[in-house]
Design goal:
There is one protein chain. The chain is an alpha/beta fold and 756 residues long. The chain folds into four domains: 180 residues, no CATH class; 201 residues, 3-Layer(aba) Sandwich (Rossmann fold); 170 residues, P-loop containing nucleotide triphosphate hydrolases (Rossmann fold), CATH 3.40.50.300; 90 residues, no CATH class. The protein contains 29 helices and 23 strands. It has a seven-stranded parallel β-sheet with strand order 7-8-6-9-10-5-11, with helices on both faces. Strands 12-17-16-13-15-14 form a six-stranded parallel β-sheet. A four-stranded mixed β-sheet has the order 19-18-21-20, covered by helices on one side. α20 crosses α21 and α24 crosses α25.
């Protein structure tokens, strides 16, 4: 008997034939209803063909090591069945997807296989004919797929996504069957507990019931309530439209969060969708949304709403054996492949997975089939990634029966990039509007007056501080942390002064926002100095907002924190948004965080000079802004490295260069006073046992991201000891008194520039 794995704890073996048959059937089921199903099943049968080699069977006895057991199956898939996608998926199911070029595929042909094996490895058996013969004698049958997955690489982003989807089915099936074996007992394999299914009718009833409560308790102005009802009715109508690409354009404060969910559930009822995935750009938004969803689905099974982001499950030790620990373990298992009816995640998690080559990241992708995928705050998609991202999402919708929705109050004119998108995916980007009457909603919900700066009128921080002090409650949003610190210094001693930036750890930021909301609700003095982290989706309501000149969408997002509930309208007033220009000397680096941010700010200023004061309540203003911005910045040609990886069909390189956020950062554990005991516990554990994955999860809420310096780690933080030996290059622990209850991480003078 040929074996797939070593014995489990119950002493049970895992026959190779049973493993290959199970993985093939499960992978096919994941791809059900798609033309790729046959090739996916073939990949399942061939993925561990090399385990029929004598050396691999010796390895299971501990008598051999350093073996490649995957390349032989990839070789058979390619040479005998012309199944290119299956060959790439099989080759990558341990080492990650590699390259789809002819030169790379030629290495997988039987005559080249020995030379193509990675350094340090040897084939378990170089004779693929012998391996296949053993598999056939073992009862396996191999058939050429009727329809090949890959016939052309003409639309490379789309075709590479096809490979990833097949890869996803294969690796998830492989993980699940292997896990079931090692969890098994004398009765056989024990599959994991599946996640709950999407009960759409019950979910709709729960949402409608929740909305009845919201309507009954709201204190919003009559016109705000009317606009929210209009949006609600629009999403219900649009939810009945055929699946595809949509954009949902609605003003801040119109109830967009719940309206998106209503659209998704209505669409799921009409078109039998299996899952709803909501992706947001910022953790502040996801936490806020999670609280709302928890209220709506409070009576539903555990993990009906699954959170998958860096702050999910913080503080819960998976090793604990009580009910809470078991529940957290189950959440983490379901997060591996998104086996839940509603998934709340981040743009980073979803979009980087769509361009990944790693089994762990791609494993969940097949569960995006037959789903409704919602992107909140869609304007946050970086320009340099726009064309390939839109192409991948377009193909996901067209080929895998998924509906994609881009929702925001400041809708980017991505359809302008349609021709660039079509170079990567045949269907391009032409979404339908969920709310055709949205211009009227913006007029109805006008809640602010925007005061634009006169040409060359710039304020010093002292002048701005004097003006902000005159308002009992005001929010100031600046472009750089250095600017926030300068204004805080100028306002020292002011009552009700708060600071918010990513210099503060996540738990500290949450605490600040709770205090700010309490001050606002009580009518107490409250002046919040913040970077852009307060803008998109954060539910806070100031009567006055000051916003440093920046991209138009950022100014509009800041305005969304002003008179958010329309309370001032009840007294015949509007909120006041003051756009100002700081008096800063030097080039753009002294005034803006990135060059693309600077370009967008320049387009805003140019439009203002040409048109006069810009109307942020008019969607046409934003269309003109984005047209000018795209003409200037040429997003379709910005990312040369990514374009080269696409042209070369290089999955590994693509995964490296497709990044939504700068990854060159370290995490620093900080001693925030209100959580000192937790910090001390984590510090002692790190110094004693060393840090583990569980430690990192618990530390996330007390960590601050800091740019990695070229000349080494910061002098004010020490690397954390790893439990397996050595020291981490990613995690550090703050040394010295450099964490302030107002400023957050405040390292020695001259080093603030390294804070991410």
């Amino acid at each position: 008997m040929y074996l797939a794995h070593s014995k489990n704890d119950a002493g049970e073996t895992h026959p190779l034939r049973a493993h290959l048959t199970s993985v093939s059937a499960l992978a096919r089921a994941f791809m059900e209803g798609h033309a790729m199903a046959d090739e996916t099943a073939l990949a399942g049968l061939l993925h561990d063909l090399g385990k029929y080699g004598d050396r691999f069977q010796m390895r299971l006895q501990g008598k051999d090591s350093g073996l490649d057991h995957w390349s032989q199956g990839a070789s058979v898939a390619l040479s005998q069945f012309q199944a290119v996608a299956a060959a790439l998926a099989i080759e990558g199911h341990h080492i990650g997807l590699q390259r789809g070029s002819r030169e790379s595929l030629r290495r997988l042909l039987p005559d080249n296989l020995v030379a193509a094996v990675r350094p340090g490895l040897a084939l378990s058996d170089p004779d693929v004919t012998r391996l296949q013969s053993r598999a056939i004698v073992d009862g396996l049958e191999f058939h050429k797929p009727a329809v090949p997955t890959i016939t052309s690489w003409a639309h490379a982003v789309a075709t590479m996504l096809d490979v990833r989807m097949l890869f996803s089915c294969l690796v998830d099936a492989d993980f699940l069957d292997t896990e079931a074996h090692f969890n098994g007992n004398v009765l056989g394999k024990q599959p994991r507990q599946e996640g709950p299914r999407l009960d759409v009718e019950k979910a709709l009833a729960a949402l409608d019931c929740h909305m009845d409560g919201v309507r009954a308790s709201t204190r919003a102005q009559t016109n705000v309530r009317g606009a929210r009802e209009s949006l609600w009715n629009s999403v219900i109508r649009a939810g009945r439209l055929p699946p595809g690409l949509f954009m949902l354009t609605a003003p801040t404060g119109s109830g967009k969060t719940l309206a998106m969910l209503r659209f998704a559930l209505e669409h799921a009822v009409q078109h039998r969708r299996k899952r709803i995935v909501l992706a947001v750009p910022f953790l502040t938004v996801i936490e806020q949304t999670a609280r709302i969803y928890e209220q709506v689905f409070a009576d539903f099974p555990e993990n009906f709403v699954l959170e998958h982001h860096s702050l999910a499950g913080l503080g819960v030790e998976s090793e604990r054996q009580d009910a809470e620990g078991a529940g957290e373990r189950q959440r983490r298992l379901l997060a591996e492949n998104w086996d839940a009816p509603i998934v709340l995640t981040t743009n980073v998690q979803l979009l980087e997975s769509l361009f990944s080559n790693r089994p762990s990241a791609c494993r969940k992708l097949h569960n995006l089939m037959d789903s409704v995928i919602l992107f909140d705050e869609a304007q946050s998609l970086p320009q340099h990634l726009a064309a390939p991202t839109l192409a991948a999402l377009s193909h996901l919708s067209a080929a895998y029966r998924s509906t994609v929705v881009f929702a925001t109050a400041t809708q980017p004119a991505f359809d302008i990039l349609d021709s660039a998108v079509k170079r990567h995916a045949v269907n391009g980007w032409q979404p339908r509007e969920v709310v055709p009457e949205h211009p009227e909603l913006f007029k109805t919900l006008k809640r602010v007056t925007v005061h634009w700066p006169k040409e060359n009128a710039k304020r010093t921080w002292v002048e701005l501080a004097t003006e902000v002090r005159s308002a009992d409650q005001a929010l100031v949003v600046v472009n750089l942390k250095r600017h926030a610190l300068a204004l805080l210094d100028a306002m020292a001693g002011t009552d009700g002064l708060f600071h918010l930036s990513t210099n503060l750890c996540a738990e500290h930021r949450r605490s600040v926002m709770d205090k700010v909301r309490a001050q606002l609700a009580a009518g107490q003095p409250c002046r919040l100095i913040s970077t852009q982290c307060v803008e998109a989706g954060v539910d806070v309501d100031f009567p006055v907002v000051y916003r440093a000149m920046g991209p138009l969408e950022s100014i509009a997002q800041a305005a969304g924190r002003c008179n958010r509930e329309g309370k001032l309208n009840e007294h015949g007033q509007l909120g006041e948004v003051v756009v100002f220009e700081p008096r800063e000397e030097g080039d753009w680096r002294r005034r803006f965080p990135t060059h693309s941010y600077y370009q967008a700010a320049q387009v805003t200023q140019t439009l203002q000079n040409l048109r006069g004061d810009l109307n942020i309540n008019d969607p046409e203003t934003f269309r003109a802004y984005y047209q000018n911005l795209y003409d200037l910045s040429k997003p379709e040609i910005q990312n040369i490295d990514l374009g080269r990886a696409i042209d070369e069909l290089d999955f590994a390189r693509m995964a490296d260069v497709y990044r939504l956020i700068e990854s060159n950062a370290i995490q620093v554990l900080v001693p925030w006073a209100e959580r000192w005991a937790d910090f001390e516990s984590l510090r002692v554990e790190a110094e004693g046992k060393g840090i583990t994955a569980n430690w990192m999860r618990r530390a996330q809420g007390l960590a601050v991201s800091v740019y990695r310096k070229k000349d080494g780690p910061p002098a004010w933080a020490i690397p954390a000891k790893m439990w397996r030996g050595g020291y981490s290059e990613e995690w550090y622990i703050l040394e010295g008194n450099y964490y302030d209850d107002t400023l957050g991480l405040n390292p020695p003078k001259g080093e603030q520039v390294f804070i991410a």
